[in-house]
Amino acid sequence: MERTGKLVMQGKIGQGIEKVKETFGKIKNFFLEVGVEAKKVTWPTFKEVRDTTIVVIIAVFIFGIFLYLVDLALAEILKILYKFAS
Question: What is the number of structural domains in the chain?
Fold first, then answer.
């Protein structure tokens, strides 16, 4: 009886070890595939990065000014409404 229990436990431990090996194999394969895909990427040139960065900075300033003006207008509208309410 004891011998059977040991064999069952050894089988389960062996299955567990195989599962761990399989998981590490999948992780290794994933990172190998990531490396292969990263080599296929067309990276932007310095000029492309610089140009798009400038566009983003200009857009941020334009939207910032726009939102500031909208905020001022809404503040004035609320002041007028509060004057009429009181």
Answer: 2
What's the distance, CA 73 to chain centroid? 37
pLDDT in tens, 25-66: 999 999 999 999 999 999 999 999 999 999 999 999 999 999
Which tokens in the block code for residue 78?
């609320």
Euclidean distance between CA atoms 73 and 65, whole angstroms: 12
Does residue 53 sit in the same domain as residue 82? Answer: yes
Q: Are residues 17 and 37 in the same domain?
A: yes
- Do 7 and 19 lie in one domain? The reply is yes
CA distance linking residue 3 with residue 80, whole number of Å: 91
Quote the radius of gyration of the chain (alpha carbons, Å).
32
Q: Which helix (H) or strand (E) holds 2?
A: helix 2-40
- Please state, in angstroms and rounded to a whole number, the distance separating the CA atoms of residues 48 and 70: 33
Element (H, E) at 61: helix 46-85
* Residue 73 belongs to domain spanning: 43-86
